[in-house]
Amino acid sequence: MSLVRCVDVARTFGQGDRAVVAVHGCSCEVAASARIAITGSSGSGKSTLLHLLAGLEVPTSGTVSWPEFGTSLAERGRDIAVVFQGPSLLPALDVLENAMMAAVLTGIDEAEAVVRGLAALQAVGISDLSNQLPETLSGGQAQRVAVARALTSRPRLLLADEPTGQLDGVTGRHVMDVLLAAADELGAALVVSTHDPAIAARLAEQWEMRDGRLFVPVRGGAA
């Protein structure tokens, strides 16, 4: 069962002489049980591909479809969660409120959202920071809040863009433990972009982005 399907997808930013092709003619599928690492150097197109898979970017050409999800971005939001690479917390909300947000936006009542938020913060090891504002957090702590927030919506597709990039080795491994355990518990697909070979090795499939082109191993080869 395919959750996301890309057919000859390309994404260009800018126009004319300033146009930059971030993704060239990508075709791929993410199955319901997938555990995928997308590797590649900085600027290779990993983040853009993840945003296309989430429906946050519209392809310049080609098609992206979600056979098992709703047709609108709002409907898909109940099934897809994204951990972004950069800071993405709302500064006026405390850590728990930020963690609850994904659950609240999918229609979960506040009491249940609080329970989910606290459980997710505990899972990533920062439940003691629940009342703090984002401005008081380190970059690594803020990233762990972002991971917790993604988990509270209980998605069927979890997309994480360099989720360990701002973390030390021990904390990064713990966050990957949390992501993998959550994907198993939820029966969700997990796609992680990373430049870290040790992180990539923990996922069953490794895809590679090179200069905006996707290389997916097929039966020992690449396509």
How would you describe this structure to a colleague?
This protein has 223 residues and is α/β, with parallel strands linked by helices. The chain is globular. 33% of the residues lie in helices and 27% in strands. Helix 3 packs across helix 4 and helix 3 packs parallel to helix 5. The strands form three sheets. Strands 5-6-7-3-8-9 form a six-stranded mixed beta sheet, sandwiched between helices. It has a domain at 2-88 and 153-215: 3-Layer(aba) Sandwich (Rossmann fold). It holds the Pfam family ABC_tran. This is ATP-binding cassette domain-containing protein. Keywords: ATP-binding, Nucleotide-binding. One of its GO terms (molecular function) is ATP hydrolysis activity.
Q: Nutshell version of this structure?
A:
The protein is 33% helix and 27% strand. Helix 3 (95-105) packs across helix 4. It is of the alpha/beta class and 223 residues long.
